[in-house]
Amino acid sequence: MLFLVVMVSFHLVKQSDTCSSLPRLSLDGDYIVGGLFQLHEKYGGTGPATDTENRKPEVLQCHRFKFSSASYQQIQVMRFAIEEINNSTLLLPGVSLGYEIFDYCSDLLSYGAALEFLTQKGRGAIPVWNGTNYRPKVISVTGPFGSSQTISVAPLYMSEMIPMVSSDSWGNKCPTELKKQISLLFRTIPSDKYQVESIVRILQQFNWNWVAFIGGDNDYSRDALTVFQDKIRPANICLAYQDTIPQNQSLIGRLFNNIAMFNVQVIVVFANVEFVIPFIQKAIDLRVKEKIWIASETWSMNQELIKKSQIERIGTVLGVTVRRHKDLRGFDEFINNTVKSRHENDPTYSFVIYSAVYAVAHALHNVLRCGTRNCANSEFIAYPYMVTEALKHVKFKLDNQSIEFDENGDPPAHYDIVHWDLVFKGLITDAGLFHSDILSCSYFLQAPVLQCSSECKSGSRRVQTGFHTCCFECEICSDGKYINHTADPYSCIACQKDEWARNGSTSCTKRSIEYLHSDAPLAIFLMFQASSIILISMAILVLFLSGGRLCFFMLCCLSMSSISVFLHIGKPTEAICTVRNSVFVVFYVACLSCLAVRSFQIVCIFKMAAKLPKAYDFWVKHGGQWITIITTTVIMLFLCILWITIEGPKPNQITLYSEIILDCTYGVIPIFYVIVLFAYMGTDLPKNYNEGKSITFSLLIFFISWVISLTVHLSTKGKHTLSVNPFSVLCSLYGILFGYFFPKCYIIIITPERNTAAYFQTAIQSYTLQPR
User: One GO CC term of this entry (predicted)?
Assistant: First the structure.
């Protein structure tokens, strides 16, 4: 059906004698390379075709449109490349290449030229296909330029598999929709998607995220816009405004009004040069100043634009262009010898046209099995489909650049980044390189802040204030939260339970685990003091060898109580928490029971003996002191067991700002109040009898130290509180040593005359004789 439609179309065009009047340039050869170039551009011409003319199947007058010097140069590059190959002894020796080039200035003429290429070589007509091969006029086609034009003519060559080696990027529709069906498309310029990627990378490089995208009314711009919108989302770039350049130049001013309204300073202009020229001219006329312009490869090297009057007003122009090369060797001489007049030099597509012709030549060279001197299949006739297959595997070096095609017929993505020096008009300098998603910039621009909102400071999250994600306010993350700007710049993330963060943090820090480490100076001090108590107790025990069993029992209890200090050192466990408190409570209460008995004995001596002699005799005869001590200790053991069984001390984690305190729950000693009561009873004793006062002093130290301990635990939290409990233990033990035993040691060693029964009896008698 497609072939029938083509034949009918060709028949209509042929009736108007279209082919005979097509503007063409030709050279005969063994194999012909076809070329379609837009030598005259309909946009901007002095007499554009009307819609009525476009609908008529008749010849259009291309000379009425604007002459394209860039396309003219491309035609000359193709002629130069073919002549260079014909003069080469290394490529296609003994085989000549010819060309037939048409001026493709309208879609209608493109069909006429395309059908002309399908005519049988030497006969001038398209034969009706009868199942046998025929040899079309051309072995390949270069051009046309433009994705819409390429897609429109490519199906015509499917039946004969004539390869199209184009210098066009085809937009994005061709690779995704048509390329799967048409495998004869090759190009020597990267896909537009890579060009768009390079532009996005430029915006990222200079941190510009508030941009406008201006395109032309064709697939080249529309397809690029689709890719651009996909690429800018993950790059945190906002499209503030996008529009299409109208063909009516009087309407272009509306675009600049909108650009000003949205306060956009960076403008990506992705359009063909015929759209860009009136757009930039309008910017000059409207005195648009100090903008950043990002140029697509279609106009980034345009000499007409860069030399416009007052172009320097518009601001800074950065552009993307296909890899530039030095002037083709011998090309200037070729132009001087073959062309009467020279046009403006636009090297944008010179090398890609040059490499396209060479790619076809290398493919044909391989089909004909050519060497350096001759071709093994010189008598063999190569058909287009053979060249198409050979192009898939061609690989060669040209001007130190590798020319090859991937499975999609695409070359590697290489782009140059250029900068327009608008002070010295006509000078375009290299600014960087884009290759395989990597941007290398050699142009150091003092980039202004061109954003809807300035970037938040480290540790602050974005709070979106409008439709665009680039417009936001900043809010600092609170304590215990952090922000990862790379993953999500809009959310503050809570730290884990074992982590902490100050307000305005970008990461969390592990909380330090705090307890009394054995190698800490404070822990060493505590252990030294506990060891000192044990040694002092042993020394006093030696001094009190004849002091009786009660003193021996008290000193042993003091030593055992001091062991609990060692259990405060190190990481607390449930067993350690239970033992360390129980050890201190039981042995210390046993020691206090001895003090209580001593207090009661003093009361008995000084009060009960005088007033209740029978009660005193009962106390002495039945060993009342040991009964009291054992009973008190057993009660304390029972309370401890009950305490542990119901709700004993356990390891406890106290989470503070930057640390986790490992400690044990705190215990209470109820017997303490009874001891204080007995101690108080000893305050009304003889002034010259100091044992009661010593007991009172010991208990006062105990009372003060534990009140301080309880107050600290209830009022403050931190690693410094870990030492409060063992300090209280040490103070309690030292209180008994200093308050009870040291005075006795002083009497024994310094004033032994006071350590006699006579002195004791004298104290009793003087107390009993006092008037009441």
Answer: plasma membrane
> Is the CB of residue 39 less than 8 Å from the CB of residue 101?
no
Cis preceding-peptide flag for 23 (omega within 30 of 0) = no
Element holding 142 (H helix, E strand): strand 138-142
Q: What is the DSSP letter of 738?
A: I
CA dist 100 and 36 (Å) reads 9
Q: Is-contact 434 320, C-beta < 8 A?
A: yes
Strand partners, 481: 494
Amino acid letter, residue 637: L
Quote the distance between the C-alpha of residue 179 and its chain's center.
35
Nearest 5°: CA angle at 532, between 555 and 723? 105
What DSSP assignment string belongs to 574-609? HHHHHHHHHHHHHHHHHHHHHHHHHHHHHHIIIIIH
621-665 pLDDT, tens digit per residue, is 766 778 778 887 787 777 777 767 776 678 888 888 888 888 887
Cβ(121)–Cβ(136) below 8 Å:
yes
Strand order in the sheet with 414-421: 238-244, 210-215, 266-270, 291-295, 315-322, 414-421, 427-435, 438-441
pTM of the predicted protein model:
0.60
Question: Distance between CA atoms of 72 and 345, rounded to whole angstroms?
Answer: 10
Secondary structure class of 283 (helix, strand, coil): helix
Of 161, 238, 634, which is closest to residue 409 (Cα–Cα)?
161
**Residue among 198, 28, 202, 46 at smallest CA distance from 122:** 28
Give the percent of the chain with pLDDT over 90. 28
| Cα dihedral 341→347→351→356 (10° resolution) | -70
Residues 318-340 pLDDT 10s: 999 887 666 788 888 888 787 76
Closest CA to 141 of 31, 51, 238: 31
On the CB side of 307, CA atoms within 13 Å amount to 8
Helices (H), 490-573: 521-543, 549-566
Q: How far apart are CA 268 and CA 422, in angstroms?
A: 18
Dihedral (CA of 533, 535, 537, 540) sign: negative
Q: Please provide residue 441's backbone torsions phi and psi, each rounded to the nearest 5 degrees.
A: -100, 130
- Cα distances from 496 to residues 365, 476, 507, 508, in angstroms, run 68, 19, 11, 8
Those residues with Cβ within 8 angstroms of residue 234's Cβ, 6 or more apart along the chain or in another chain: none
Round to whole Å and give the CA distance between 56 and 185. Answer: 30
Q: Which residues pair with 370 in a beta bridge?
A: 375
DSSP SS3 for 157: helix
